[in-house]
Amino acid sequence: MGGAKNCPETPRQKMIGMMYLVLTAMLALNVSADILNGFNVVDSSLHASIDGNNNRNGNLYYRFWKSSKREEIKVGPWYKKSQELKAKADAAYDFVQQFKEGIVKESDGKSAVEKRIAKNANVQGYDVTRDYESKDNRDASSNYAINMGHGAELKKVLNDYLNYLCQLTDTGEYGQQRRDELKMIFNTDDVYSDKDNTTKSWEEAMFADMPTAAAVTLLSKMQNDIRATEGQMIQYLYDRTDANDITVNRMSAYVIPKSQRVGVGEKYEAQLLLAGIDTLQTPEYYVNGQQIGKDGLYSFTASGVGEHTFSGVIKYRNNAGEPVEAHFSERYIVEEGLMQQFKPDKQDKLTPNVAITNRDLTVVYQGYGHTFMVTSTTIPAANLNVSASGATVSKLSPGLFRVQATASPGSDVTINVSGSYQGKTVSLGSEKFRVKRLPKPMPSLSVGGSELTGGKIARGKLLNAGAKVVASYGEDALIKADFTVTSFQIYAGGKYLPSNGSGYSGEQLAMLKTLTMGTPVMFLGIKARGPGGVVLDLRPISFVLN
């Protein structure tokens, strides 16, 4: 939507400004009729310039309005600002016009001016400030602007309009340049005079001892400046409607699949996009605070099973040359590798892992916490869930579950696997396992770090007060479980003596001390509590005192 940037001054406008400055300087030397007529010439040129600005601004407003109707969301807010600008500019322009009329009334007399206005009431576009007689009156402008205080009011109106224009501009380098130019045009600072080393207020410097013709021309110049800067700002606001757009010179088609893996019978979904790029500028890409290559390709070696995220920003410049940042964030899931790459010959081949199951060992033990690993080629391990009938299930980590059978031996436990896939929970299958009792562990007498399972035993070891009866599967067992001996009996010398724990009772130890060499000693009635609280009866242990 761009157009002529900032509507710079035309050569005609610059020439009019120079003529006004020359005529103003000549006033200090002479107030001849020729000079006063010169102000009339400049004033007429200024009005021609104002008319041109009005036509140009009207066309801009019309284009703005049409664009807002076509693209209300994009252009509408900026068009609303342009209408606010129009109201501000009209108010400032009208105040200057009233100011001019006030000076003309002071110069020609209020009644004479009002009669002239009434006489030309039917004349279209009649302007009394272009039809007055006392062009050389030096008191009218001083009296109206300074003595009556209207000059201070005019100064405030111009300053308010200036501040409004400055607030409309952006905060970048170009915006600062535009604000500096506006401040030069509507400068109302006090004026210092080298000649008499004094400082005059702006209204005094502009209107004190100023002929009416010069004052009216000065005010016409202010009106021209208001319309000219209004046009600049309309164009600026119009350009802002596409300032945040990016010019593209290449279109490319992209396919973004919801997932590149899909199961048989499931729906494949992908988003088809037509994206434009600007090959004349190279964006800057940052991921997790670090800048990556100019091609925007991001890769890394995954580690740590589970869900992770990364984020970053892409920096570029819009049509106005302003820096823009586009932020992004993405999640990904790392799971145990289901595919391994190998090179049997000279060609790379991608081969999946296989799951090999011994169908003869599909059993679970009552009360024992079995660890199950569950994998899927379509769903990440973090999104897998396991439930079971006849057992309790707890999740240890992504893909790992603890299953503890509660069903009676001889019955079945059914393990069900499901997963979260594309926002839905899908069933992935189930498996049955036969429930069996835990195998009985091997009892032994633990003495000084050694576990004795029978045979000859030294007197010192047998009588060790710290000796305990323990039970375990041994180091080579397929399953690992902890057992606690809850009771046992000792038979020796024709006596049965019990213990309600894993260590000797007082009676047992006293009796063992009376035994002689060669006496048989039997540990029997051994009971051990295992996983799930199951209590098992264990075989006896026989020793001969050596």
Written description of the protein model:
- With 546 residues, the chain is of the alpha+beta class.
- The chain is 35% helix and 29% strand.
- It contains 11 helices and 26 strands.
- Strands 20, 22, 23, 24, 25 and 26 form a 6-stranded mixed β-sheet that branches. A 4-stranded antiparallel β-sheet has the order 6-5-7-8, with no helix packed on it. A 4-stranded mixed β-sheet has the order 11-17-16-13, with no helix packed on it.
- Helix 3 packs antiparallel against helix 6 (150-168) and helix 3 (72-108) runs antiparallel to helix 9 (212-240).
- The protein is rod-shaped and about 155 Å long.
- The chain starts with 10 loop residues before the first helix and ends with a strand.
- The model is unreliable at 1-7 and 337-356 (pLDDT under 50).
Shape: rod-shaped
Strand content: 25-35%
- Major pleated sheet: 6 strands, mixed
| CA(first)-CA(last) distance | 109 Å
Q: Compute the number of strand runs.
A: 26
Low-confidence stretches: 1-7, 337-356
Mean of residue pLDDT?
A: 84
What Rg is obtained from the alpha carbons, in whole angstroms?
50 Å
Any descriptors?
6-stranded mixed β-sheet; 35% helix; 11 helices; 4-stranded antiparallel β-sheet; 546 residues; alpha+beta
Summed up:
The longest helix has 38 residues, at 33-70. 35% of the residues lie in helices and 29% in strands. It is built from 11 helices and 26 strands.
